[in-house]
Amino acid sequence: MPEALIALDGICQFPPDRRLSVLKKSLRYFLINPLEITSCPLLEGSDCLIYTDRFFGCRAYGLWSPEEYQRRTEADRAAKRNMGEQWLRLGIRLPAAVIDFQVPYCRQVLPAESGPISDRLLTEAEEGIEQISGQLHPWSGRFRDLYFSDWSFLIAGLIFGIPEAVRLKFRMVKEGLQTGSRLRLEEVVSGLDLRGDLFT
User: pTM for this one?
Assistant: First the structure.
């Protein structure tokens, strides 16, 4: 929760055109990420727009041991397969390539400080973030329970409200699978231009 709020605050400081661009990319990401492998909406080219305030998962990428990264990858893949089963109950079969995709382990990342960073140290940092988040009760619980700790869902929910964001996602995924068209998706995303200056 604190990381999402910091990211949102950072985006609110962007000039209006860049802010709108990031909101559109975030909404597009939310609406079609079950259909295709998409890059982070906070990337502009290869640059992170919130690099100094980036999420812990981004900071820790490449620092976990290969064994711990593999364990986390398997847990994430199991969660995505479970999500695929939930969609299947709604009559929608998600592409296996998307469900099984994981970012490969990176051996090129080096810590800024000298000396190795252990899994234990990273786990303690992760737990510390969770403790801070817990101090934001009840909002941290709402973020977890309503938005599944998904930053792009938070953005979509703030723009459209949760029920409409969920309805739109279901519709975009279903239409995308049935027709392969992204026309309606682009209409929804382009509609943000008509909603005034969002998140000011």
Answer: 0.89
